[in-house]
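Q: For a teaching handout, I want to show students what a protein-ligand complex looks like in token form. Below are the inputs, and the small molecule is NAP. Please produce the holo structure.
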Amino acid sequence: MQLSKLAAVVTGGGSGIGRAICQRFAREGACVAVVDIDADRTRQTLDELSTKGPDCKHHAFTTDVSSAESVAKLVKEIPEKFSVTPTILVNCAGITKDSFLVKMDERSFDDVIRVNLKGVFLVTQAISKLMIDNKIKHGSIINMSSISGKTGNIGQCNYTASKAGIEGMTRTMAKELAEHDIRCNAVLPGWIESPMTQAVPEKVLTKHLGMIPAGRLGQPEDIADACLFLASRKSSYITGTSIEVTGGLFM
Ligand code: NAP
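A: Here is the structure, written as tokens, with NAP included.
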């Protein structure tokens, strides 16, 4: 098992890609902190996690990643629940509020930046302080960006700005945290089947499906596998980069 005796924090763990990451990490022996704004879905993810032995207890936390107060509470509670300091963080919580540029209201722009971009800043700042204070070894932070942050996407000027911002922030984090033995990388999913993409009109999905060389939409497990690689020692010389998991879309 690649993550045996390690603790991992996964935001957005109550749904879709985040839930698949929690499951993958738990199967690899990690103790998982499932973090999400939705208490019921967070608990559901927790209930579905496999547990390997008495050393490996998972815990659920209801947290709003965009609130400094809520994140401070999370970071206070984590050491109370886990016997080891987390060495892995996956920032996966995210939202969309799509609209054409000329129609988008200020609130939709601010909300998406606040959750997707400021949320990554707040959680990473708090968890990396915990890692540094506890002198952890071989830390890994993984930020969920999107291929649309690179290519742009009609109706998503707020979302694409947040996801492009995550890539820049990841590189800064990688430079600043390297001296503390913490690596930081971004994952850029393409079209992944999840509750987030269920809201996308069938017509749009079919059009994009035709553009994916792999000939299928991605599954949350495809992203979880990339996160496992970045979380594990198998990627120990990889930092400050982005991995596209898109089935070849926009290569
Ligand atoms: P999802 O199923 O909607 O999961 C996102 C989770 O984050 C939801 O449980 C959501 O709760 C939670 N969340 C929202 N705001 C939060 C907050 N303020 N604090 C804590 N948790 C919050 O979406 P997904 O498809 O798994 O996406 C996961 C990540 O991958 C996102 O960052 C997304 O942008 C990125 N991504 C997804 C795709 C794709 O095709 N699916 C492609 C590229 C990138 P609510 O449901 O209550 O909002």
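A: Two things your students might notice: The pocket of NAP is lined by residues 11-12, 14-18, 36-38, 41, 63-66, 92-95, 115, 119, 144, 146, 189, 191-192, 194-197 (CB under 6 Å). The first strand starts at residue 7 and ends at 11.
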